[in-house]
Amino acid sequence: MNIDKKTTELLERVNYAREILGNKSRPELDAFSKEIEELPVKFQNRSEDRAIRALESLDKRLSTMEAAIDAQLTAMDKVRIVRHPQRICLKDILENVYDNYTEIGGKDEHSIDPGMLIARAYITRRKGKKIINQPVMVVGQEKGHGQEFRNGGSIKPWGNSKALKYMEVAAREQIPIHAYVNTPGSYPVEDFPGAAQQIAENIYEMAGLPVPIIAIFSEGGSGGAEAIGMADKRLMLSHGYYSVISPEGAAAIEGRIKGSERAPVELIESCAISQRITAQDNLRNGYIDEIIEEPSLGARPDHFDFYKQMREQVVRATDEVALSIRGMSLFRAFAMRHFRKHADIIVRWSLSEKARERLIARRFKKYRKLAQHAYQDNRSLLEKLNATRTGIVSTTTSAVQYGLIKPFKQKFTRIIEEATDEIHVVTGRFESVFSNVLKKVGGKSNGKSQAEIELTGLSQSEPEKKIIPTDSNYVSPQAHLDREITCPNADKRGCLDIWARDLFTDFAGVCPHCGYNFPMEYQWYLHNLFDKGSIREFNRDIASGNPTDFPNFEERVQAAKDKTGLQSSCMTFNASLDGIRLTCATLIANFRGGSVGAAEGEKFIRALELAQTKHQPFLAYVHGTAGIRIQEGVNGLIQMPRCTMAVRKYIEEGGLYIVLYDTNSYAGPVASFLGCSPYQYAVRSSRLGFAGPGVIKETTGIEIPPDYHNCFKALSRGHIQGVWSRKDIRKNLHQAFLTIGGRNLYYR
To answer: What CATH code is assigned to 92-368?
Structure first.
């Protein structure tokens, strides 16, 4: 044993323990450190054997001390473990968990975002003399091994795009995906393809990948985690964390910290606990399926026994997913459930076509069941029974109308059309012969044939369409202001001041000179967009709550309910627009900034399910959203994949999904169930993106230009497909519903 080397190693372990404890005073560590430092002097004139025995004794004492400290770790201590430079990284895992691998998609500083590492790897399994090599696609964020260019695992949009590309390659090659989540969050840049848009696309596409996906969480930071974290089985390292926002970010919001100020340490510690971010918290809430136990104070690169344990659990998780959708798996499934050691159980990871269909269906059911405990259902028993009855009636009606009558009608119509077209060939020939005879008998006619009229004649005007009146009784409170309003573009474009009464009534909040759209209340849209008396709200009494028992948050939620008269920031209803029946979900900025939690996610999903049952188009009108509600922790964050899966199911069934943004729309909802729509539009003067200006400056140090999130910038980046004036919304939406749609065009 090299005594100096062993002494240095012990001192490094002590310093590591101090660092993950936030350099708090720990007398036992101080005393132990002092004892190590005095060791060389103490054994200067003694035999080497005695020094070695003393070091071994100290090693055992330090291990005992580490175990004792480990049992007392707080949530914030675990955050520091995950962020520590000595934490294991993805390359360590590739070297020690897999038998062979090749990094693909570029590597090191020449890669498209080297923070996202992709590798084609093999796991070799032996059964007697038989050797089975099972390929997997490994994707994950890499923090170390060249951290100076990996950006701390904070992935840019093109890095998430790279991950999706190779996950789709894995789906084509029919091999499982192992996703290692180790990121503080995605890099908030809007450059094409845009952080929010790319995360939304990743979640949407992963929902339908027909191969087993296993996610292993170490640091699961917000949308960055969700970009590769949707999985059939989710494992988590025991010292990891999974959260909607970092504890520091939550503390900054809770403490209203601005500028260069720092949140108090006590508030950061409190937020880390209150958000329920640890592996144990997430297991209790059902957001992960299993915990991989780490050595005391967290796994580090030289913990080789840990890699063996991780390999066993990752392989086992992949086996369980494959077996759960197989036909012949009775004995192997029983052995997997009841015996921890299953080295002799051989499970092949390739799936049949039927098994792949079952896999996707099970994935949807898994996420649909999550977060059911995290919202308040204040409906009475009678209301619940009535909702169940309505659902049964709608489902039955849909099955009869669209499953039986419509296919028969379509088939019959096709036969009639084909027969009519055949008859036209014969009758057209007779008409041509008869016309020629008439010409010879009666001379040249000055009249035009029907074909000539159709090609060259002016089209006849159709009768004027009856306009269905809107409920225009609503008057914006801003119209009662007894003053003139100055347009923000007045200096640049010479707009004249407008009297508030005229601006917010006759002009609908639109500057008559430059077209700037002033903010309007969500009630204006309800009364001016939809046909008069057509709105029928449902699920109103599914209410926002405080599932994490976040300090003082219940009172704030109740205050929002009292102030707005709403139970959550999401309002769902059926309505008609110029005679077209549709389902709408509205995120309302007045209620906690339009932030999304468990109640909002549940209402959004139920609205999509109702639209699918009724075969109606779906409109998501975003009056404004500040993102995911941080006080609900992962209960809110999990709504990103949950709602996105519901959107995917609706679109796959042929539904038409349109999103309209207004005011300010940022973060999680835009990076998932809103951003995955193929048809997104924005009201003029709206702002949208992944992160607000303050967050971007705090996380990147970059001062962005004032128009960075402007809707026209979003249009130029391909985020949205059009920018509308508020005055044209009703007309444009009606036109969109008539011309855009899936293969079934529900509303026709």
So the answer is: 3.90.226.10
